[in-house]
Amino acid sequence: MKDATDRGVRDAEAPERNGRVLIFPERRLAEADDASVVRILLDGDPRAPRIVWQRFAPMVFRIFKRAFGPEHDIDDLVQEVFMVLFDRVVTLREPNALRAFVVSITAHTIRRELRRKTAARWLMLGDTSAARAREADLDSREAVVRLYRILDRLGSDDRTAFVLRFLEGLELVEVAQATNVSLATTKRRLARAWGRVVTHARRDTALVEYIEAIGFGRAAEVLT
Amino acid sequence: MTPDQIVERLGQLARETSEDELTARENEGLPRLERALAQRVRGSRRATVVRWSLLAAALSVTVAVFFLRERTLTFEVAHGKVGEGGYIVSESAEASVRFSDHSELGLEPGTRLRVSQLEVRGARMMLEGGLLHVHIRPRPAASWAIDAGPYVVHVTGTEFDVAWKVEEQTLDLRLTKGSVTVEGPLANGGIHMLAGQHLVAKASDGSLSIVDERNAGASPSDAPTQASAAPGTETASAAALAKAASTKPGIPSSATTEIAPAVRVARSVGAAWSARVAHGDFAGVLEDADRQGIDRTLAEAPLSDLAAVADAARYARRQDIARRALDALRTRFPGTVQARDAAFFLGGLAENQNEGPSALEGYETYLRESPNGPYASQALGRRFILVQRLQGAEAARPMAVQYLDRFRDGPYAPNARKLLQAQ
């Protein structure tokens, strides 16, 4: 039987005389390490969905938003990630690497979704994306939409690496682990993706003008 | 800012748009996940068989779609060569481009053409110079277009000869069969042409004329009624232009003596003026406006009718009415597209009346109000030419540079380069 600490139950101080029992299970679980959460998952604890959701859903949503941009519906993809997590957690060899495991599932889902989108475009006999916006009156949202149109031109592997590294800010090693390729391959993909994005962005006159107009805020530390 | 910095800034913007906090809607994913996990049932062997069967069926459909889907057109060049940049240059009178849907283009010697885009049911081509005999196979939803200088000829299925004379900046289109729509300077919204019509449009002086050549019995001495967009007095007559066109191989010389007196128009009582203008009924629209009273029309007509009167007057060379209608557009409907375009047309009218400063003001107003408008290329081009004439080459050079920056292959690019080389 698991002890109360493992279950995240905080015992109150001796309740012998008119004391109250205070229980804060969620807070304690939120502070639990990855290995403890993995144990809860493997035990089939009914609180497991809530625990992993609270711990990882913000990250998963954020990565998907950065991967697909503001125009993409990602709710189903998030569900997929968590369903796969529950299915595959038994294969996790290093319980302390749960976060990396979730990132890896997310990266895999991104690549698969990008390939699905590409196939859909191909079957629709051409690009189904919206017509190019008029080159005037860009705002930040339109600029971001244009960035994602540029990313649409990348291959799924290159784009996934680009998003994890340059938008999500993962370390090179983390990107390599998440995409299940070597460090050298990761670097090649990133260099190729960066070069293509720069090339396409430079051709978009309105985009360049907009970016130059709003100026360059802080440097993107993730690039160094 | 370097391109790298631009992408870095874009990444920064993208990161700023994705927040860490989940919205209420996103948090609804938790009960959904809990339900899905609770209801998950391991698939039975039978379900697996069904899944594989469905997958096989889907694969079959995919394969069928692959083999049955329409392919993008292809083309082959006969008696010509494909040069640098994909340009097709004819080497003999038999030169032709044959498309996989059996559409065909005949190229007169010296013609330079580039197929810039191939689609499933059409193509877009750029006629750099010379004369094309075009035969497009009619198909539903076909989409063919030929760019010639600042003009675009939209084709559905038809036969015609089209020439682009680079030096004269003149489009010469003789429609044999079917119909086409021509867009370009002074053809705002497109001019619909019917079989038998002959269009000559000169980008250099902003003139446009259409004559109907089917009325072969008409007296050659009749003055050609022109669907002329010329805002100036220097516009060549349709007959003269047709004569000039006939000197090119491939255009029947008889055309020069059989120009009909009037554009054939399908005039329907009560039809919208804009539709009638699109069909070439310029005189009819002006007659109706006159019947109602020009002053009253200019003061009370709705936007579309007022714009139609302005177009009709420009095409019919009624410059007095054209100017008043354009002024009325700008006064009564400020901020509309038509009002903004009116500034450009007023510039053109003034230029052709040798009113240089007024013309310059018109073009500059247009560029200020519509920096990316459809006439931006024309306005920028006319502006540096006017400034060169009025203020000298030194003042015009920065404008020529600006023109080349935006329209490297535009109709005024040769003038701009010449101006810069003379430095």
Structural write-up:
The complex is a heterodimer of chains A (224) and B (423). Chain A is an all-alpha fold and 224 residues long. Chain A folds into two domains: 22-128, Orthogonal Bundle (Rna Polymerase Sigma Factor, Chain: A); 129-224, Winged helix-like DNA-binding domain superfamily/Winged helix DNA-binding domain (Arc Repressor Mutant, subunit A). In chain A, 63% of the residues lie in helices and 0% in strands. Chain A starts with 24 loop residues before the first helix and ends in a 10-residue tail after the last helix. Chain B is of the alpha+beta class. Chain B folds into three domains: 75-257, Jelly Rolls, CATH 2.60.120; 278-327; 334-423, Tetratricopeptide repeat domain (Serine Threonine Protein Phosphatase 5, Tetratricopeptide repeat). Chain B has helices spanning 3-17, 24-27, 29-39, 45-68, 238-246, 273-278, 282-292, 294-300, 303-315, 319-332, 337-352, 356-369, 376-391, 393-406, 413-421; strands at 75-78, 80-82, 87-90, 96-99, 104-107, 112-119, 122-135, 144-148, 151-155, 159-165, 170-177, 179-184, 187-194, 197-202, 207-212. Chain B has a 15-stranded mixed sheet that branches. In chain B, strand 2 and strand 3 form a beta hairpin. In chain B, helix 10 packs antiparallel against helix 11. The model of chain B is unreliable at 216-270 (pLDDT under 50). The A-B interface holds A 49-50, 53, 57-58, 61-62, 65-66, 69-70, 75, 78-79, 82-83, 86, 123, 125, 134-136, 140-141, 143-144, 147-148, 166-167, 169, 194, 197-199, 201-202, 207-208, 211-212, 214, 216-220, 222-223 and B 1, 3-22, 26-27, 29-30, 32-34, 36-37, 40, 62, 65, 69-70, 120, 371-372.
